Amino acid sequence: MPDTTLMALKAAGARVRAEGSLIEAGVDTAILKRCALVLRDAGMYPVFMTAVHTEAGFMLCYQFALWDSPCRVLVSTPAKNDGRAVSLTPLFPGLQWHEREARDMFGIIFENHPDLRPLLLCDEDRDLQPLRKDPARLKTPEQLTRAEHTDPDEQAP
Amino acid sequence: MDTPGHRQKGCPAPRCPVAPPNCVQPDDTPTLWYPLRLAEPILDACRANSLWPLTFGLSCCAIEMMSAGMARFDMARYGAEVFRPSPRQADLMIVAGTVNKKMAPVVQRLYEQMADPKWVIALGNCAVSGGPFAGEGNYAVIEGVDRLIPVDVYVTGCPPRPEGLLEAIFTLQEKITGRRHPLPQNRHPHKVQKR
Amino acid sequence: MNGSQDTRTFRMHLNLGPQHPSTHGVLQLELEMYGEYVLGIDPVLGYGHRMHEKMAEQRPWQAFFANTPRIDYACGLPHGHCYALMLEQALQIEVPPRALALRIIASELNRIASHLLWVGAFLLDLGAFTPILYCFDDREQAVDILEHMTGSRLTHPYMCLGGVTGDIDEETVVNIRAFIRRMRSRFQIYERLVTNNVIFIMRTRGVGVIAADMARAYGATGPVLRGSGLSCDIRTVAPYGGYDGYAFEVPTGERGDCLDRYRVRMEEMRQSLNIIGQALERLPGGPVRAEVPRKAAPPPGQYSCSVEGARGDVTYWAVSDGSDTPYRLKIRSPCMGNLSLLPKLCRGMALADLIATLGSLDLVIPEIDR
């Protein structure tokens, strides 16, 4: 049920905002695994995992959904400065290929990933990282957030 | 130049630009033993009436290629019914779909594995020129399969209708034998003017 | 294994694809075999990678509608539907009711065409050459109607921002009703030829059993998840685009084997005919497209939309920086989740059963590769 999930996420330390059945959660790297465990115990299935290249580095975005209710959770977390991130594959095996694709497209290295070979790109393009943006076209995370959502009162207690 | 079947009669065959040195190219094929050259028109008619395509559907155009082989459009009427999965048994490679950098060596290897005489139809805009994926920022799609292998007939469309593939078969038959319908039973019932 | 001679004889590395009649596109499976049995699979993807997400970042928002039917070409309208709904939600555009109904009719026709294509190809993999001819015959009827509505047989340019590109006339409505009647009568052919066929049942019953928990952990959705018993269909769980006004059932299987997935898809085709019939009965009048800005520029933020494609949960997620070009567009392909469970599932399976399972997942590889 969305309410208990919301409570559990807030208790784990995420900054949660709920709009109807869509829950957006901003988490720090340290608590990502704890939040993912909460979602797995709620019975959610992994929809996707991807990244966005911003001026502040890579923003990793995960989406999870429930199979019997319209609840969807979007989890955003920044990658570490050197482009490394924690792999959620041990918790959600379905994210394995999404993380391989993120490595192909952005160059993010996932720690504890069982198999981080190129998925979509050919061998000679393995370090092409095509979805990285030119520095001139990068935007800050604030420029990519909805104006009404930059309210500081939305922080978790 | 009357090398058997690969190029239009009298047209000098271009060398494939990316072929490795030991790849057999059209102008390297040995000419037929003289008595068999007398039978060449018959051999060409047989080849044109019995093209065996390689199952090489890569993306969207593969569905139209399948439709062309099914009951409504029926390529079997024109002889090209027997889709062979193995390149050793096929003589027509219909490149139906987008060729990207990862697939390019596979296309070349399959083409080389096919025995002469062999022909290639580039089906769809992606195989002709990269299609909707060509342009600035393209890092993966090969803009046209003729950068890899020599193409005999180009069929444009995204995707082309199955009738387009049938027209490609006719054009190829004309290229091989000089006539659109090499054998009498394939003549159009409304007596379309012969070329 | 007893001794090195056995290992030498029976253990081998077999390469399946990327050119293979049964891989449904350009999939390469590197198989470790022990005789006829699969020890391990390593799928190699990327042979159909066509940079859709990169193209989205270089073109205006509305120009991406040309890419959407080409991502999953067998059932491309739900992708366009999803992208359109996401943009309309972002731009607060209200779609006229006639357009909603036409979108549903076109999507369901496309679902039927896609499932027919799947049935034919699946049976071709199992070695049956006849059913694909019947399937394609029925598919041609559906595709004819879609061609009248949308202008194209396969990559339909129908969904657009604010509605659909064109209206349908009375003749098309009559043709759709005739198609529904004809299709309902054709199911008995499939019952006799395929569903009650003892060879088909022996090849598919108990083969490729996917447990519901495993399907969920790997993100498998659509008929794969429904075949395992979970009634998860976004059209009923989180209705979008007007689907909450239609009454239809969501078929589920029991065991999660290939036969269940086949039955789920056959029943889904029947339910799609019901939906189309209901949509035609209550087809409202009015415009088919709302007034939309010439260049769409959603306000900064992230937007997400999910629809039920023929293969599962199609989700689009976009990040906008306020300009008329997307900053990031993520396309979630349902086939990716469906295929990712194959390596775990197929250990110890015979090669013929692997082909049956692979076929029953209904994969379109260029959708995974995007």
Question: Quick gist of this model?
Answer:
The complex is a heterotrimer of chains A (157), B (195) and C (370). Chain B has six helices and four strands, in the order H-H-E-H-E-H-E-H-E-H. Chain B is an alpha/beta fold and 195 residues long.
Q: Which helices and strands, and how do they pair?
A:
The complex is a heterotrimer of chains A (157), B (195) and C (370).
Chain A: H1 2-12, E1 15-19, E2 22-26, H2 32-41, E3 44-54, E4 57-66, E5 72-78, E6 84-86, H3 96-106, E7 109-111
Parallel strand pairs in A: 2-5, 6-7
Antiparallel strand pairs in A: 1-2, 3-4, 4-5
Helix pairs in contact in A: 1-2
Chain B: H1 34-38, H2 40-49, E1 53-54, H3 60-69, E2 92-96, H4 104-113, E3 119-123, H5 125-129, E4 153-155, H6 162-177
Parallel strand pairs in B: 1-2, 2-3, 3-4
Helix pairs in contact in B: 2-6, 3-6
Chain C: H1 4-10, E1 11-16, E2 28-34, E3 37-44, H2 52-56, H3 68-71, H4 77-91, H5 97-126, H6 131-150, E4 159-160, E5 163-164, H7 170-195, H8 198-204, H9 212-217, H10 223-227, H11 234-237, H12 258-281, E6 301-308, E7 313-320, E8 328-332, H13 334-340, H14 342-345, H15 351-360, H16 365-369
Structure description:
Chain A is 20% helix and 28% strand. Chain A has helices spanning 2-12, 32-41, 96-106; strands at 15-19, 22-26, 44-54, 57-66, 72-78, 84-86, 109-111. In chain A, strand 4 (57-66) and strand 5 form a beta hairpin. In chain A, helix 1 (2-12) runs antiparallel to helix 2. Mean pLDDT of chain A is 85; it is low at 151-157. Chain B has a four-stranded parallel sheet with strand order 1-2-3-4. In chain B, helix 2 (40-49) runs antiparallel to helix 6. Chain B is globular. The model of chain B is unreliable at 1-12 (pLDDT under 50). Chain C is of the alpha+beta class. Chain C has one domain (49-342): Cytochrome-c3 Hydrogenase, chain B (Orthogonal Bundle), CATH 1.10.645. Chain C has helices at 4-10, 52-56, 68-71, 77-91, 97-126, 131-150, 170-195, 198-204, 212-217, 223-227, 234-237, 258-281, 334-340, 342-345, 351-360, 365-369; strands at 11-16, 28-34, 37-44, 159-160, 163-164, 301-308, 313-320, 328-332. In chain C, the strands form three sheets. Chain C has a three-stranded antiparallel sheet with strand order 1-2-3. In chain C, strand 4 (159-160) and strand 5 (163-164) form a beta hairpin. In chain C, 58% of the residues are buried. The mean pLDDT of chain C is 92. Chains in contact: A-B, A-C, B-C. The interface between B and C is medium-sized, with 35 and 31 residues.
